[in-house]
Amino acid sequence: MNKILNTLMLSCHKATELIEKKTVFSLSPAEKVQLYLHTRVCDACRNYQKQSELLDVVLEQELKALHEENISEDRNTDDQRIIRLKGKLDTEKFS
Question: Domain coordinates of the chain in residue numbers?
Fold first, then answer.
């Protein structure tokens, strides 16, 4: 029984690795179950997962906007873009 519990329950370190892994790769069925169970009981990792997903969405939107605008390599434009990104992240809620 302990072996099954140890297999199913992840450490927070491993859970955050899986959260980041799933943004690039598919998780195995076992990893999906492990992450699901862990985030059901761990508020910190659940919040981390929400924040990670929010960052992915905001950065994807910004990359699409950059592509559509065909921004030149201007340092002032980069600074403005950083300010705009910070503003977007500050207005989002992580609850």
Answer: 2-91
